[in-house]
C-alpha cells in the first residue's frame, strides 16, 4: 500500500483499495465507493467514465510508460495524469479529479487540534467575553511571536493579517 494514501485515510478502508499495486492488478473493479463516500464528486465526474478510465488505467503498459508501483503515490499519479492520447487530450480526466482529491486529503487533524489548543490558552474562563476579532488577533500575534523568535523581535506591522 502507498504510504501517502495509507496516511491520508487512517480511518477508512479506502486506503487499501487504491494502492498502485492493486490498481495495476485491477483487484478493485470500480470507484463507486469513493463517489458514495465523497458525494460532491458526482458534480464533477461522470461515474461511468470514471470506472472506464479506472479499467483503462489497469490495462496500461506500465514498464513501457515508466510507471513503477513502488514509487511515491504523487509521482506515480503525476506520470499517469500527464499521459495523452493521439489527439493530445488527457487520458484520464475523471480519474485525475478523484485521485487529486484523495491525495489532497490531510494526513491528520493535528493542525486543527493545535489551533484549538491555542484557542483554549487564549480564551480562558476569565476572558470569556472576548469577541471573535479579538480572539483571532490574539492568535495571530501569538503565532507571529512564536515564529519570529520572541516578543523582542515581534513586529506588529509584519504580522499576518486576517
From TrEMBL:
Pfam families hit by this protein: Dimer_Tnp_hAT (PF05699)
Any one GO molecular-function label of the UniProt entry: protein dimerization activity
Protein's UniProt name: HAT C-terminal dimerisation domain-containing protein
Upper lineage: Eukaryota, Metazoa, Ecdysozoa, Arthropoda, Hexapoda
HAT C-terminal dimerisation domain segment(s): 90-135
Amino acid at each position: 500500500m502507498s504510504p501517502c494514501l495509507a496516511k491520508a485515510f487512517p480511518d477508512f478502508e479506502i486506503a487499501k483499495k487504491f494502492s498502485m499495486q492493486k490498481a495495476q492488478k485491477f483487484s478493485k473493479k470500480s470507484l463507486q465507493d469513493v463517489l458514495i463516500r465523497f458525494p460532491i464528486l458526482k458534480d464533477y465526474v461522470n461515474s461511468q467514465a470514471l470506472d472506464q478510465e479506472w479499467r483503462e488505467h489497469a490495462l496500461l503498459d506500465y514498464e513501457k510508460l515508466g510507471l513503477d508501483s513502488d514509487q511515491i503515490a504523487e509521482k506515480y499519479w503525476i506520470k499517469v495524469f500527464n499521459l495523452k492520447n493521439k489527439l493530445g487530450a488527457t487520458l484520464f480526466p475523471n480519474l485525475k479529479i478523484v485521485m487529486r482529491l484523495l491525495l489532497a486529503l490531510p494526513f491528520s487533524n493535528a493542525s486543527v487540534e493545535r489551533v484549538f489548543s491555542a484557542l483554549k490558552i487564549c480564551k480562558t474562563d476569565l476572558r470569556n467575553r472576548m469577541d471573535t476579532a479579538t480572539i483571532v488577533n490574539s492568535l495571530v500575534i501569538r503565532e507571529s511571536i512564536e515564529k519570529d523568535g520572541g516578543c523582542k523581535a515581534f513586529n506588529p506591522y509584519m504580522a499576518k493579517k486576517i
